[in-house]
Each structure stands twice: as structure tokens, then as C-alpha cells.
Amino acid sequence: MPDAAPERLAVTFTRILRGAGLDVPVGATLQFAEALACAGMDRRAPVYWAGRATLAKRPEDIEIYDRSFDAFWHGAGAAPVAAVPPDEPALVLAFDAPVGDGGDAPDLPASESPSVTVRWSPAEVLRHRDFAAYTPSEFAEARRLMDDLRVVGAVRPSRRRRPAKRRGSPDVRRTVRRALRAGGEPIERAYSAPAPQPRRLVLLLDVSGSMEPYARAFVRFLHAAVVGRTRVEAFALGTRVTRVTRELSSRDPDAAVRAASRRVVDWSGGTRLGACVKRFNDEWGVRGLARGAIVVVLSDGWDRGDPSVLAEQMARLARVAYRVVWVNPLKATPGYAPLAQGMAAALPYVDDFVEGHSLAALESLVEVISR
To answer: How many helices (H) and strands (E) does the chain have?
Structure first.
């Protein structure tokens, strides 16, 4: 037996096994080294059974293991390693087809040596990349991924009722009808419970100049929400408030975005969040559109108006809404703090303050909305 440390001996012996044709993973090598440290390396039997238990996983591997162990124990371990060197696998990087392409994957070049194929997908990279750093081609790819988002909002009990088994209130009408079929005896009682109804979702998108790198991605998110479910309202906030629900209701994403851009005349203009939220509350929100709804504000919080106005209007909105979610793409910036006057004024009335700089952040936003 060679005089060596357990780790060194384990690596040498597993190389012999691999040269003999046995498949030994790295984890098994580590287990063999730990077993040698516990059993010792002075006697043949403990070393044999330590390797047999950790390296020979199948019955057909025992014969190869015994031959290799005999050669290794009698000092002939170095020869098989030099004679049958393990082939170094070649690393092959395969690119997945872009999302939406129906073509087959390209054929990889044939090689006599073994190779390890590592697949790389651009979609996973785009999920975590900041929208502001997108190239035009990456943004086109992200648009296709964003169309697959499905926004499912929280539910609330409605006035309509539905049949229930053993929960809810007694359903007298159904109970009497069943009793008439049984000769007037109420053998089986019926129950009813309030039917769940999805809460209204209201999306307020800041389209000011400071939001330009993110607004073009957020408007795609608004379109996915409007066409993906009912009871969704979308508004654009800049120097005025513009309702874009009808324009975004088209099934064609490009046509919907073009119609919304023509409708919003103050795109990439100034910012008057306080005045815009006030008008939304006066004309739509407090009158009923935001009552019991999930209100999502997509903005960086920069406001040129009086911050007290925004604080007052956010307080009004929070009193009638079920939940207020603020999506700020700058929140993911290292060292960010909500010090902008608009953001600082609105934050006390926000239930969820989340990021919105990437596709992964929008997927997390979908989960927040569904709670």
C-alpha cells in the first residue's frame, strides 16, 4: 500500500478505475476519501470495503473493481494510470434557439474525443439584465418573453353565491327542491358560499423623461395585463393623466403600443405626480375605480410638484384601495435610498415597495399582485 494521504490515495485509485472503464463521479471520490480517513489504510480489508461501498454502485462494476484493487494494492497502481490516461472532455457551448423560433438546433461538429455540452440560453441572461442596458435586439427578444407573462390578481368574495359542500350558509331553495324529490323529507341539506371574484387591477405608469429607459418595457407589461385578464385599467402619468385601457386591449402587441403612444401626448415630458394622482382620484379612483382594487404605480418617484400634494393624494388612494404597490426601477441600484421628494412623500402610504428594472423583477411583481 503506498504511503499517502487519504485524499491523494482516493484520487489515484479513482483514476485507475476510470481508466479501466468504471464511471466514478467526483462525489464518490470524496466519499471514498472520507471512508479511508475513518477506516485507516494499514490493512487491506478496510480499504477494500471502503472503496467497494462508495465506488462500485452496480453489481456489474464489482469485477472491474476487484481487478483494479488487486493491481493497486500490490503497488501496480501507477502503471494503469499512465497506460490508460483518461480522456480530457472537450467543452462545447451550444446556443439555444431564440424564443419563438421554430428551427432546429444547429448540428455540433463531430469529434472523436468525449465532450461535455453546456447549453446557454439568452432568455436567462435577459431576465436579470437592467432594461436601461438593453440593445435593440435584446429588447425585441424581451418583448416576446414579456408577452408570456400572466397577471393573476387577488380575489375577493362577491355578492353572488355558489353551491358549497359543508361550508357556508344553508341554501334553503336547493334544500326544499331536494326535499320535494324525497317525498318532502329534507334528507340532504344544501349550502352556499360567496363566489370569489378577481379584484380590479389599476396600473399607473409614469411616462416622464426620467422613466424613458423603463417606460417602453413597462408599457409591454401593461399590455400583457390588459389582454391577459378582465377588470384591468391602465393609465399614463406625465404632465396629465391619460387612460389607455382601450388602446392596450388589442391582441397585437405592436399595434397596441403604437395606439397608446399616439394617445399619450406628453410621453417623455415633465413629471407632476401629485397633480396626476389628484386628478385620477377625483375623476376615477375615489369614485369607484380604485375602491377595493390593487393599485400599481410604476414610477421612479421624481416629482417637480409640491410633495405635500402627492402625500395627500396617496393617502386618499390608500384609504379606498385594497393594496397599493409601488414599482421603482431604481430600487435595484446599489446604495439606493428613497430620498427623492416624491418617493419619500408617497412611501408611507405604500403597502409593497418593489423593484422593476428587469424581467425577473416583473415576474416577482406578478407574484406580489396575486397575493
So the answer is: 14, 11
**89: which 3 cell numbers?**
472532455
- Residue 260 has which C-alpha cell? 397608446
CA angle in degrees (0–180, nearest 5) for 339-345-351: 100
Angstrom distance (rounded) from CA 363 to CA 199: 19
Cα 348–Cα 350–Cα 352 angle in degrees, nearest 5: 130
**Mean pLDDT confidence for 274-292:** 93
DSSP 229-284: SSSEEEEEESSSEEE-TTGGG-S-HHHHHHHHHHH-TTTTB---HHHHHHHHIIII
**Residue 164, C-alpha cell as written in the block:** 358549497
Name which of 315, 306, 320, 301 is nearest 348 in CA terms: 315
Domain ranges of the chain: 6-83, 159-196, 199-369
Name the pLDDT band for 116 (thresholds 50, 70, 90): low
Instruction: Characterise 292 by phi-psi region: left (phi > 0), alpha (psi -120 to 50), beta (else).
Output: left
Most confident of 78-87, 91-100, 313-322: 313-322
Set of cell numbers at residue 77: 497502481
Q: Where are the alpha helices (DSSP H) in 286-335?
A: 307-320
Maximum separation of any 2 CA atoms in the chain, in Å: 95
- Between 5-9, 95-99, 193-197, 200-204, the lowest mean confidence (pLDDT) is in 95-99
Burial class (CB in 10 A: 0-12, 13-18, 19+), 23: exposed
* Beta partners for residue 91, in sequence order: 116
Instruction: List 119's β-bridge partners, or say none.
Output: 94
Going by pLDDT thresholds of 50, 70 and 90, the confidence category of residue 78 is: very low
Domain formed by 199-369, architecture:
3-Layer(aba) Sandwich (3.40)
Determine the pLDDT at residue 242.
95
pTM across the whole model: 0.64
Q: Are 243 and 235 in contact (CB under 8 A)?
A: yes
Q: What is the C-alpha separation between 95 and 72, in angstroms, rounded?
A: 43
Confidence band for 81, pLDDT divided at 50, 70 and 90: very low
